[in-house]
Design goal:
Elements: H1 2-18, H2 21-35, H3 42-48, H4 56-59, H5 63-69, H6 80-95, H7 105-118, H8 129-143, H9 149-160, H10 168-176, H11 186-200, E1 206-213, E2 220-228, E3 231-235, E4 243-248, E5 254-258, E6 267-271, E7 276-280, H12 284-303, H13 308-452, H14 458-490, H15 496-535, E8 549-552, E9 555-560, H16 561-578
Antiparallel strand pairs: 1-2, 1-7, 2-3, 3-4, 5-6, 6-7, 8-9
Domain PH: 203-299
Subunit structure: The SWAP complex consists of NPM1, NCL, PARP1 and SWAP70.
Keywords: Cell membrane, Cell projection, Coiled coil, Cytoplasm, DNA-binding, Membrane, Nucleus, Phosphoprotein
Length: 579
């Protein structure tokens, strides 16, 4: 009943706003009671509309009376079209545009009723752009034309910039202007409006001519069938004047296809609790459409759901409410952000004022600082002169220190040069050691040759041993000199000139040793020749003793210590004999 009351209120609102209620309120109330099949209450009517300042019309308005004595008593057993037509009659003359329209007054009435169905539940009543688009699409589809989305988008943009939606009379002007039905004649537009009116207002889900089989005479008669959410009515013709019967639908009904029989095709059967109805459609497509439409209606009855167009309207409203709630939430958040921004601005303003005050204080302090600075400049001028004198003295000291530093650097460079010369001297010494090593290797090779012929060089060996001993003494002397040189190298950085002299002396001594070695080698060769000539033979080299060998500066000795002693005794005996 709440939904019915809201639908009635929209039509009543148009009539209410179009009338002078103080003079025509009784007429409106009487007409409402008549078309809504509500019993009249003349006493309440006269009490409500009594002619003084204390009447409820003046203090409480018309709504309390309307709710209490009319709307709350409505049972639903009234003709909706007749009710809407009564309200339309009261408001159309005052509000309908005087400019010529491409639709008739009857079509305008139907558009007005459709507007009440699709408008928002708030007053003054308007239809939002989404519902306008839905209605225009339905009309375009009913006319068999193509929908011009781009054209409507331009119209929607222009509409949104000026207001939220259209009133009923503006919607009638829009459809009557032919803006979205160009190329269509008046009859086509009227048929489209009537089709949409039947679907949305009269809840006509489907209608058309079909053949129905009689229950008594079993003959087939053509009837105009009208499918609604809970009933199928059939008439003699489509003018709906001569109604022949109803098929009451509920959740227990079903519909099924039948095979062709008795010369009839495209048959289907509607089964109800008390009766079954055989119907023949004009073709297979119509048959399938009717079966599907009736089955959908039965399924909605079983589920307790409203008709599809009402459910779709409710979903669109819920979606708009959701979007509106989101938009309000967004606006609330924007307001909060704006308030926060304003608070920040206030804080910034406070900070700015504080900064200005701080700047004023800073300017005062700067002024004091400048005065103090002037005094300090006078005070520090004398100190500056003294500082200049001190700086001059320091510059002189720095110049002196720079000169000393330059001398020190020159001394360092000289020492570096001496170090390089010392390195060269060390390289020369290293080369001398290598030459000495070469001589040692040569001497070792000579000793090996001598040891191979020691059997025939006994006398010569004694002299050679003496020579070796002398050489060892000289070598020891050379080793001592080398140690002295190494010690001298440690202090070479301080005594470079002395080291150079010692190195020259070492080289001279080395040359002398080489000469002595050469002389010893020559003597050895001459002695070997003499022994060979004197004895006339060369003794074979025998294996040496297993006793440890002597080690000389040039390597292992040619004789063992025992052999050397034996040879010395033999040489001494021969020497004594020869003397």
């Amino acid at each position: 009943m709440v939904g019915l009351k809201e639908e009635l209120l929209k039509s009543i609102w148009h009539a209410f706003t179009a009338l002078d209620l103080d003079r025509s309120g009784k007429v409106l109330s009487h007409n409402l009671c008549t078309v809504l099949n509500v019993p009249h209450d003349p006493v309440a009517l006269e009490e409500h509309f009594r002619d003084d300042d204390e009447g409820p019309v003046s203090n409480q308005g018309y709504m309390p009376y309307l709710n209490k004595f009319i709307l709350e008593r409505v049972q639903g057993n009234f003709d909706k079209v007749e009710f809407n037509r009564m309200c339309w009659t009261l408001c159309a003359k005052k509000n309908l545009s005087k400019s010529p329209l491409l639709i008739s007054d009857e079509d305008a009435f139907k558009v007005w009723v459709i507007f009440n169905f699709l408008s928002e539940d708030k007053y003054p009543l308007i239809i939002v752009p989404e519902e306008i688009e839905y209605l225009l699409k339905k009309l375009t589809e009913a006319m068999g034309a193509g929908w011009q989305q781009e054209q409507f988008d331009h119209y929607k943009i222009a509409l949104n910039t000026s207001r939220e939606g259209l009133s009923a009379w503006e919607l009638i002007d829009l459809i009557g202007s032919g803006q979205f039905s160009k190329g269509m004649d008046q009859q086509t537009v009227s048929m489209a409006i009537n089709e949409v009116f039947n679907e949305l207002i009269l809840d006509v889900l489907k209608q058309g001519y079909m053949l129905k089989k009689g229950h008594k005479r079993k003959n087939w008669t053509e009837r105009w069938f009208v499918l609604k959410p809970n009933i199928i009515s059939y008439y003699v013709s489509e003018d709906l004047k001569d109604k022949k019967g109803d098929i009451i639908l509920d959740g227990n009904c079903c519909v099924e296809a039948l095979p062709d029989k008795d010369g009839k095709k495209c048959l289907f059967l509607i089964k109800c609790l008390d009766k079954s109805f055989e119907i023949s459609a004009s073709d297979k497509k119509k048959k399938q459409e009717w079966i599907q439409a009736i089955q959908t209606t039965v399924n909605l009855l079983r589920a307790g759901s409203p008709p599809p167009h009402k459910e779709a309207r409710q979903k669109r409203k819920e979606l708009r409410q959701k979007l509106l709630a989101e938009q309000e939430e967004l606006e609330r958040q924007m307001k909060e952000l704006q308030m926060a921004n304003e608070n920040k601005q206030k804080e910034l303003e406070t900070v700015r004022k504080q900064l200005e005050a701080a700047a004023a204080r800073a300017a005062e302090e700067e002024k004091k600082r400048l005065q103090t600075q002037v005094e300090l400049q006078d005070r520090f001028s004398l100190e500056l002169e003294r500082e200049k004198m001190v700086r001059q003295k320091m510059e002189e000291q720095v110049a002196q220190k720079s000169s000393e530093l330059e001398q020190y650097l020159q001394r360092v460079r000289e020492l570096e040069e001496m170090y390089k010369q010392l390195q060269e001297a060390l390289e020369d010494e290293k080369q001398a050691r290598q030459d000495e090593e070469t001589v040692r290797k040569l001497q070792a090779r000579l000793l090996e040759e001598e040891s191979a012929k020691r059997a025939e060089l006994e006398k010569w060996h004694l002299q050679q041993q003496q020579t070796i001993q002398m050489t060892e003494a000289e070598k020891q002397e050379l080793e001592n000199q080398r140690m002295i040189k190494e010690q001298a190298l440690q202090v070479a950085m301080q005594q470079l000139e002395q080291l150079e002299l010692e190195r020259k002396e070492a080289l001279e001594q080395y040359e002398e040793v080489k000469k002595k070695l050469e002389m010893a080698a020559n003597n050895t060769k001459s002695w070997k020749d003499k022994v060979a000539h004197h004895e006339g033979l060369i003794r074979l080299i025998e294996p040496g003793s297993k006793n440890p060998h002597l080690i000389t500066n040039w390597g292992p000795a040619a004789f063992t210590e025992a052999e050397l002693e034996q040879r010395q005794k033999s040489w001494k005996g021969k020497k004594a004999t020869s003397e």
